[in-house]
Write a structure and sequence with these properties.
By secondary structure, the chain is of the alpha/beta class. It contains 15 helices and 15 strands.
Amino acid sequence: MKALVNDLRANPVKYARACGYTKLTDFHNAWIKEMAFGKGDVTFLGHRGSYKTTCVTFAFALLCVLKPDQRVMFLRKTESDVAEVMQSVGNLLQSPTFQGIAATIYGVPLKVTKATYSAVSTNLAGGASGAAQLTGYGIGGSLTGKHADLVFTDDIVNLKDRLSGAERKQTKLVYQELQNVRNRGGRIVSTGTPWHKDDCFSLMPNIKKFDCYTTGLITPDQIKALRQSMSASLFAANYELKHIADEDAIFTDAKFTTNYELIRDGIAHVDAAFGGADGTALTCINRVNGNYYAYIRLWQRAVDEVLDEIIALCKRLKVGTIHCEKNADKGYLAKAIREKGYPAQTYQEKENKFIKISTYLKGAWSKVYILDCPEYPLDTNALSQILDYNEHSEHDDAPDSLASAIRKYETKTRFKGFTEGI
């Protein structure tokens, strides 16, 4: 029994691999050890795809078995993010590996007595309170009266913290409240990816960084492909764990809506790519009480390859005419859209692109709300391209599409034509 406990503490990654986490490496072993058995607060900043959440999940299962009387609290950005991890912890505890571990250490079968989207507990837990061993919360929930020996945060900072000063402030307030949540002598362990020089990670202690060049998890060719597939700032934040200076940025502090019904009866605009390095951008937008509510998408593909998806999205969102310029294709795209049974309108673009974006989109930016909800999740590449835009930007498909769509409203030119079954 003692030998098994010592081995679990020294080589947890060996048991994680036995549970199916075969891509974890030796440095993940150090992560899991520090998460589950370390001393003091610690912050792990890892690039996207570095298996941070996998390590946190396995650490939770270890704590449920090796420290069953400790109370662990887990926070992520949303409750749905929490539920995914809770389910994985419950599955781990019921795996043959953990069943065997518990039987060897305690001489009794391991039973999961609670497994919900927000709590996990086992028959190993003692105490009279009946509190779950592991509880999870989205950061929007109330933490008043909550207490834990160990507090874990995972990805509580995301793209919204980069775009919104209000979001950064709210995330910081939640993190500061955790100081009152942890019990005396307790720890706060945080994992994630930085997004802004003033985001919540600026408050966190004992930061350990693992970028895409040091983990060995991504090959040079993969790094090159990733760099080409997204905006410079998104790659820098997600993979290099650094921020690109934004002194020349035109757009900051985006606002969001979760109500896709606000886009209904609006219009659509497509900025089409016909090959090369440019992407195809879609904007579905409506103006309601002076505000703009927009759904944005960006594909690094030619428009022909994504046209069916574009039309399907427009139908789902119940917007009307799709607008597209005819400078490059002489009206080919609009004709193809109409042949598929959807209304389309062309126009001749005569305005300088930078002037258009810095006039119409910049002028309306304080009234623009970007759709982000489970049915239509935020396209981080599209929004990052807008955020990164300046006069010298190499790629401008998303801001160009959004600016063109807003211009349709600002110049009083609005076409509608959605009917069910088109």
